[in-house]
Amino acid sequence: MKTVLLFQYFDAPSPVRKKELEQCVLHNLKIGFDKILIWNDSVDPLFISENVNNIRANRRMTYRDYVDVLDAEENYGSLVVLTNTDIMLDKNVLTISQVIRNNSFLCLSRYEQRGTALELSGTPWCTHDVWAMISQPVHNSIKFQSVIPLGMPGSELRFAEIFFNMGYAIFNPCVDIQNVHLHSESAPHEYKNRIYGAYLFVPPCKLSDVKIASLNPSHMATPVYLTNFFERPLKIG
Predict the structure, then answer these.
(1) If 0-12 CB within 10 Å is exposed, 13-18 middle and 19+ buried, where does residue 29 land?
(2) Half-sphere exposure (CA, 13 Å, Cβ side) for 50?
(3) pLDDT digit string (tens) for 61-120?
(4) Which CATH superfamily is domain 3-226 in?
């Protein structure tokens, strides 16, 4: 199965952050993907290689841009992986191609480096940084709803629910695939940027679960709703 990797690159706010992003990119370029698509947000392409296709853009990438790659006929049948820029992919990510089915959508949680050990995110069911799916025709409903910028709080849960609502089996095989988050200058998300609506919690599982249980679209995923109609009490009268 052909493999495709997609991620965005941008002008980091600090030298430390820029170094971390470059470290992740250089690591991921060596994983072994057949084709790599880099979404360059308002920056000149920095990474040039025979299998790299640099996309010039003047905005942050959205999940719709990933969906468009999934929906592109030239990619049909390929495993297409989207990653946040500050993730060092586990080399075993390519083994997903051995178990994934057309009706599966994978949302993988991240690990943090703690000394010499890796530690899974404290809330893995609602922290996804890597996505994987077989390229195929995608329903317009998914396209219309996926115009959500990457990195917004709650965006990954909303994106997972969109596929779940269309009947896909959603999995988080982070037990076997240990992608590492690299971010030493973490800052809290701003409340005003949270994406509200239907969420999907996707608990950790193994690759064997993906292979066995894909025939059950509702397996191991729990839809919930997060709504906030008003930020402060509404004064009546």
Answers:
(1) middle
(2) 2
(3) 999 999 999 999 999 999 999 999 999 999 999 999 999 999 999 999 999 988 888 999
(4) Spore Coat Polysaccharide Biosynthesis Protein SpsA; Chain A (3.90.550.10)
User: Do 136 and 163 form a contact (C-beta atoms < 8 A)?
Assistant: no
Residues 6+ apart with CB under 8 A from 187: none
Q: Which amino acid is at 29?
A: L
Give per-residue pLDDT as tens, 29-50: 999 999 999 999 999 999 999 9
Q: What is the largest CA-CA distance in the chain?
A: 66
Strands 222-226 and 197-201: antiparallel
- Partner residues linked to 6 by β-bridges: 37, 82
